[in-house]
Amino acid sequence: MPTLLIADDHPLFRAALHRAAEEAVDDLQISEADSLDSVLEAIEAQQIDLMLLDLHMPGNHGLAGLATIRALQPGLAIIIVSANEEPHVIRRAIDLGAAGYLPKSSGLVDLQQALQTVLDGERWIPAMLRETVARVAPFSKDADLAARLASLSAHQYKVLSLVAEGLLNKQIADRLGVQLRTVKAHMTRIMGRLGVRNRAQAIRVLHEMGLADPSRQIEEAQDA
């Protein structure tokens, strides 16, 4: 029985994906996650065959989350689900190991085709975007950035993500329920593995793989 993890921070969208996936694939075991932390816990606790991953959920930092998950679980097939339909973003995701890319504007048929295609071991991109994506040149920095992030453990990535959110070591220790010296030790190892000298440079590694979220940009414009 194949297993699917739906990773998205919007409950209604998760529920819609859940129902659609049940209709698309027989005998599919489905679980859900609403942040990258819960994704990392899920892939440590159980065998996952396929994931629908929202690029912009909490802790993901755009493509950094994808790179980290791929490093921890190289055999896990990941379909990116995003409101971002920019061809260069899709190309970067595919080059970093995504098995498919599903715009949030897609319909039920596209989702069903994506799930079936990826479970069959093939890559899936919407037909209307394939030629455009194929013409996009690779982003030269991504391979190096992904390799550096891949050197981090799941716990180290969590610490780095919280540093990027602006938390101090003491706040990170409280959030994770660990001692302050543990966080400091993680930070020393993080900077060593990323090849950086300070927190600002470590944060920059995440930011270089970050992406603007079109859905949030629309919400902010409506609120302005």
UniProtKB/TrEMBL annotation:
<keyword id="KW-0238">DNA-binding</keyword>
<dbReference type="GO" id="GO:0006355">
    <property type="term" value="P:regulation of DNA-templated transcription"/>
</dbReference>
<dbReference type="GO" id="GO:0000160">
    <property type="term" value="P:phosphorelay signal transduction system"/>
</dbReference>
<dbReference type="GO" id="GO:0003677">
    <property type="term" value="F:DNA binding"/>
</dbReference>
<dbReference type="InterPro" id="IPR058245">
    <property type="entry name" value="NreC/VraR/RcsB-like_REC"/>
</dbReference>
<dbReference type="InterPro" id="IPR001789">
    <property type="entry name" value="Sig_transdc_resp-reg_receiver"/>
</dbReference>
<dbReference type="Pfam" id="PF00072">
    <property type="entry name" value="Response_reg"/>
</dbReference>
<keyword id="KW-0597">Phosphoprotein</keyword>
<protein>
    <submittedName>
        <fullName>LuxR family transcriptional regulator</fullName>
    </submittedName>
</protein>
<dbReference type="InterPro" id="IPR036388">
    <property type="entry name" value="WH-like_DNA-bd_sf"/>
</dbReference>
<dbReference type="InterPro" id="IPR000792">
    <property type="entry name" value="Tscrpt_reg_LuxR_C"/>
</dbReference>
<feature type="domain" description="Response regulatory">
    <location>
        <begin position="3"/>
        <end position="119"/>
    </location>
</feature>
<dbReference type="InterPro" id="IPR016032">
    <property type="entry name" value="Sig_transdc_resp-reg_C-effctor"/>
</dbReference>
<feature type="modified residue" description="4-aspartylphosphate">
    <location>
        <position position="54"/>
    </location>
</feature>
<dbReference type="Pfam" id="PF00196">
    <property type="entry name" value="GerE"/>
</dbReference>
<dbReference type="InterPro" id="IPR011006">
    <property type="entry name" value="CheY-like_superfamily"/>
</dbReference>
<feature type="domain" description="HTH luxR-type">
    <location>
        <begin position="145"/>
        <end position="210"/>
    </location>
</feature>
<dbReference type="InterPro" id="IPR051015">
    <property type="entry name" value="EvgA-like"/>
</dbReference>
